[in-house]
Amino acid sequence: MSRPAPTLARLERILTMVPWLLTNPGVSVEEVGERFGVSREELADDLDILGYCGLPGYGGGDLVEAWLVGDRVTVRMADFFSRPLRLSLREAVTLLLAARALGSVEGLADSDALRRAVDKLQALLGGDGARVAVDLSAPGDELLGVVRRAVDNGEVVRLVYRSASKAQTTQRDVEPWAVVGSGGSWYLQGWCRLATAPRDFRLDRIRSLEPTGERVTGRRAGGVPPVYQPSVDDIEVVLDLAPRAAWVAEWLVVDAVEGHDGVHRVRLRTANLDWVARLVVQLGGAAMVVQPAALTTRVIQLASATLRRYSL
Amino acid sequence: MTERLERLINLVIALRETRRPMPATEVRERVAGYGQPDAEAFRRMFERDKADLRDLGVPIETAPLDRWDDRQGYRIDPRRYDLPPVRLEPDELGALAVAVQATGMVDEAGAGLLKLRVDAGDPAPGPAAPDPRLGIALDTPHRDVLVTAQLRRTSVRFAYQRAGEQRAGGERESQHRAPGEQRAGGNARDRDPAVRTVDPHALVHRRGRWYLVGRDHDRDERRAFRLDRIQGKVRTIGLPCSFVAPDDDVSVDDVVPGRRGDAPATAEVLASAEVAWQVARRARGGGAATDDGWTRFTVSAGDPDDFMFWALEFGPELEVVGPPELRAAVVARLRGLVEGAR
User: What is the pLDDT of residue A230?
Assistant: First the structure.
């Protein structure tokens, strides 16, 4: 479902824009620009092209009339374009996919409005179309509504959280930046005041979350989601991933991936080996530690400690 | 670009307004931009334009010129060209825009959204870029080709890494492999995926993974395939409209691998006091306290790989009690880690 080639994308825009211009003669260039994402030059070009189009014969009365006078746009004599082109099946499928995705969990958008939109799109498609079902529910998703409100309001939240490297929970205040759904989990991204660093918090590891009423101010307000910045103290980790674990390479922030014969070798840097050790144990043999040796040691420790639970 | 754009617009107008289907010869003579002296150049140009317009969704039909003349002509039925009234309300458009932004589909769905805005009367300024405050990763390789195949009802063929067939044994072996030995010493199954031929019925996203649901030709039954286990390219084979998709609505539950009967759908686990609250999330409540302060839960375990990935995250804070085969698989994985690393 890639974007069409430039000429076709432009054609699609013109076919969508003309119906609106026909019913709104004399609108300003600015109004057209902000609705259809066109610059004055592009719009002038579009209108120029339209002026050469019309019914075969192409005489007076056959051609579209399209003018840009001063700041005002007028298109006439184009009744054949009084409606936008029908949604292509792909467009309808993509819109439905997006709407169903967001509608599959509560708290992210106006669910009722989304449901009505899905019904109308579905009616438009009739029996045609592709069946695409999306379910974004995941443990912890009951927090989505309150997390999303905190992000939108820029309100500091107090979390009781269990991090990937420990069994115990800690309490921390977080300046929220974003809600992210990825790899079957939901995350709150933000600035952690306990760690004084950007952090991702998986919602199912959040034991409790309370808005504090404090608004984020200053330079981090409305900050962009964190991008991991490796520091010089970080440890370089190299893992070999079997096909079953190949998805990890897309999910982790890795420096490099080399693949041969179905095995993906990934390199990444981290300040903390504990979470990597836990990940390797979770993958249960589908990931092999190439380096460092300290990571291998931790994997053995964690796996042995877990085995003891099974009295082995 | 300008010349082609003009020609395409003129072709749409001509075919839309023609009283009777327009034969190619007439297109060449009458529609601006097609006056090619060379017949072959005209034919190529016209073919390409038709294909691109159809790809955009312009319904160009072929039909006999009239009742007495069975030569083929082209036309666009205005009723099939025009977007029927959809009349989304402002809040519906708003929610749809949020959905398109959050899923990162502005590029793919932005044009469609714009049509709906125009249909609604006033195309208020739309989203130009994804909103960084809400992001949902739905991107996956093969989605485009599989949706297209579904729409055209074309069968697809791909190499597929079988689930759960490269377990402990093979992988422990691969742990001892030096990088250079992978071709010679690798697990045969890793390198020899099965080739599947499938009629694509539906695409399903669940728990962060995409699945293709469709009829497997060799097994002659409906199966689910994880898109991340497809190796290499998905190729379409055969002609469009080569199968009839079943009418039933595909529910997300259809793809839970536990339904196949070869894996238990639930598991019993014991969780320590430190993590019981978190396990309760997966169990969606419940849990029975034991004498030593742990809690017993029944949790879903449809896909053994997924279940073990989840369970092992808790390390010694969680024990898989049953069913026995799942407990044994967990123990085998842990032993493999301890022994394989030595």
Answer: 56
* CB contacts < 8 A (A, B): 398
Q: For residue A292, is the peptide bond before it cis, meaning its omega torsion is within 30 degrees of 0?
A: yes
Question: Domain span at residue A256?
Answer: 235-309
Q: Please report whether residue A130 resides in a domain.
A: no
Are A288 and A263 in contact by the 8 Å Cβ rule? The answer is no
Cβ separation B338–A303 shorter than 8 A: yes
* Helix, strand, coil distribution of chain A in percent, nearest 5: 40, 30, 30
Model confidence pLDDT, tens digit, residues B202-246: 888 887 888 898 889 988 888 888 888 888 899 999 888 888 877
Residues contacting residue A27 through CB under 8 Å, at least 6 positions apart: A21, A72, A73
CB contact B55 to A (< 8 Å):
yes
Residues B317 and B251 in one domain: no
Is B150 found in the same domain as B241?
Answer: yes
Distant-in-sequence, close-in-space partners of A70: CB < 8 Å, separation ≥ 6: none
Predicted model pTM: 0.76
Is the domain of A95 the same as that of A72?
no
CA atoms of B185 and A270, how far apart (whole Å): 31
Residue B87 within a domain = no
ipTM metric: 0.78
Does B119 reach chain A within 8 Å, measured CB to CB?
yes
Residue A103 and residue A70 share a domain: no
How many domains, in total, are found in chain B?
Answer: 3
Domain count, chain A: 4
**What is the residue-wise DSSP string for B300-339?**
E-SSHHHHHHHHHTTGGGEEEEESHHHHHHHHHHHHHHHH
B15 inside domain: yes
Is pLDDT of B171 > 70?
A: no
pLDDT in tens, A89-110: 888 888 998 998 998 888 888 8
